[in-house]
Amino acid sequence: MLYIIIGVVILLFLAVAVVGLVRGRGKQGPPKGLTGGGASTDEVQTGVQVPAPRGVEPETPDTGEAAAGVGLLERPEAAAGRLARLRARLAGSSKLGQGLLALLSRGQLDADTWDEIEETLLMSDLGIGPTTELMERLRTEVKVQGTRDPVEIKAILRAELLRLIDPQMDRSLADKRNMVLDVPAVMLIVGVNGTGKTTTTGKLARLLVASDEDVVLGAADTFRAAAAEQLTTWGQRVGVPVVRGPEGGDPASVAFEAVTAGIESESDVVLIDTAGRLHTKVGLMDELGKVKRVIEKQAPVTEVLLVLDATTGQNGLTQARVFGEVVNVTGVVLTKLDGTAKGGIVIAVQRELGVPVKLVGLGEGPDDLAAFEPEVFVDAMLG
Ligand code: GDP
Question: What is the 333 CA–ligand 1 centroid distance (Å)?
Answer without folding.
Answer: 12
